[in-house]
TrEMBL record:
Keywords: Iron, Metal-binding, Oxidoreductase. PROSITE patterns: FE2OG_OXY (PS51471). Its cofactor is L-ascorbate. Transmembrane segments: none annotated. Belongs to the iron/ascorbate-dependent oxidoreductase family. GA20OX subfamily. This is Fe2OG dioxygenase domain-containing protein. GO terms for biological process: gibberellin biosynthetic process. InterPro entries: DIOX_N, IPNS-like_FE2OG_OXY, IPNS-like_sf, Iron_ascorbate_oxido_reductase, Oxoglu/Fe-dep_dioxygenase_dom. It catalyses: gibberellin A12 + 2 2-oxoglutarate + 3 O2 + H(+) = gibberellin A9 + 2 succinate + 3 CO2 + 2 H2O. Residues 219-319 form the Fe2OG dioxygenase domain. It comes from Ambrosia artemisiifolia (Common ragweed). Pfam families: 2OG-FeII_Oxy, DIOX_N. The keyword Iron applies. Pathway: Hormone biosynthesis; Plant hormone biosynthesis; gibberellin biosynthesis.
């Protein structure tokens, strides 16, 4: 897999500047374009195959059953997540307790924001090296393999939980969007609460205490990402989100009615069918490190289509910035030595934003980078 590693060939300011001026991804225009700009065309070995991917039968966790505390339900839930996380790191969560109208508002309000004129969206423009704000296909950040999507990302702090953090990204766009900030603040609060319930179960399934990971993430400083994939006239030439493993700890994703999420399992791309009553949950690199490599952070991507826009709400659970990520001692012994160096999420996040384009090798590349830096000091 080619690695857009800015370390080796750091872009000169003029090339970045040039990119920022020469190519702007205006979805309202490009979605009708049959002549695909070269930068959006992915290499043959990464292009989506034209025939529809086979569906993946994803284990489904009934979270309400687990939270009821009934011992049979707890054991069943623990076995289900352990098997899923050892295999491909993906499972569905139903009976999750998140208000259905909050989810539909969060989905619906994405249209309100992304259907704005580009000039308005760019008032919340994400700056190179930062992980929040509006981005249209990351022109100015990447020079090739541009994703066919627009994104709006913002930080959520479980400790502060004051919605003006989220609101600032919307208020920049327009005063009328203050209400959107409230909806996404409430949505992130619900995701944070759901994450902690899942962390209890992951702790049990790994044989550490029920509270270990829940405590570690209770003051999480997470990332909320709104993904908007416009229709594409040549969907087999590009990707909405390229093949990657999430560098974060846990991802809680809500697909709308349009399919597109695919996971690389047993050497083939398998699709996850949208289910509006379920969240798709996957282990990220940081939790793979916390599990000392027992649970897998797996390769996945998003494909686009030529008929309708696709939206996904992705909540990326992240520990507070400077907490040390280190597997608990219960998961380390002579047969299971520590697999990864200790690190902080803030260092790993900066690595993905400034030095390395997250892909299938992100955690290994980061570990090498950390060890190489340590050997120089
Ligand atoms: C920490 C993060 C970086 C990305 C957003 C979160 C978790 C997933 C990462 C990402 C989606 C992986 C694929 C490449 C990426 C550039 C993207 O397509 O958005 C990644 C995100 C990012 O760097 O903004
Ligand atoms: O949009 C999707 O279904 C997947 C997006 C994704 O993997 C991500 O944003 O990390
Ligand atoms: Fe992802």
């Amino acid at each position: 897999m080619a690695i857009d590693c800015i370390i080796n060939n750091p872009p000169t300011m003029s090339s970045l500047k040039e990119q920022q001026t020469s190519l702007v991804f205006d979805a309202l225009v490009l979605q009708h374009e049959t002549n695909m700009p070269q930068q959006f065309i992915w290499p043959d070995h990464e292009k989506p195959n034209s025939q529809k991917s086979k569906e993946l039968d994803v284990p489904t966790l009934d979270l309400g059953g687990f939270l009821s505390g009934h011992s049979g339900a707890v054991k069943e839930a623990s076995n289900l997540v352990r098997e899923a996380c050892v295999n491909h790191g993906f499972f569905l969560v139903v009976n999750h307790g998140v208000d259905a109208s909050l989810i539909s508002d969060a989905q619906r309000y994405m249209d309100l924001f992304f259907e704005l004129p580009l000039s308005k969206k760019q008032r919340a423009q994400r700056k190179v090296g930062e992980s929040c704000g509006y981005a249209s296909s990351f022109t100015g950040r990447f020079s090739s393999k541009l994703p066919w999507k627009e994104t709006l990302s913002f930080h959520f702090s479980a400790e502060e939980n004051s919605y003006n953090i989220v609101e600032e990204y919307f208020k920049k766009t327009s005063e009328e969007f203050v209400q959107l900030g409230k909806v996404y603040q409430d949505y992130c609060h619900a995701m944070s609460k759901l994450s902690l319930g899942i962390m209890e179960l992951l702790g049990i399934s790994l044989g550490v205490s029920r509270t270990h990971f829940k405590e570690f993430f209770k003051d999480n400083n997470s990332i909320m990402r709104l993904n908007y994939y416009p229709p594409c006239q040549k969907p087999d030439l590009t990707l909405g989100t390229g093949p990657h493993c999430d560098p974060t700890s846990l991802t809680i994703l809500h697909q709308d009615k349009v399919s597109g999420l695919e996971v690389f399992v047993e050497n083939e791309w398998r699709s996850i069918t949208p289910n509006s009553n379920a969240f798709v949950v996957n282990i990220g690199d940081t939790f793979m490190a916390l599990s000392n490599g027992r649970y897998k952070s797996c390769l996945h991507r998003a494909v686009v289509n030529n008929k309708s826009p696709r939206k996904s709400l992705a909540f990326f659970l992240c520990p507070k910035r400077d907490k040390v990520v280190s597997a608990p001692d219960e998961l380390v012994d002579e047969n299971n030595p520590r697999v990864y160096p200790d690190f902080t999420w803030s260092t790993f996040l900066e690595f993905t934003q400034k030095h390395y384009r997250a892909d299938m090798n992100t955690l290994q590349a980061f570990s090498n980078w950390v060890q190489e830096k340590a050997s120089r000091t």
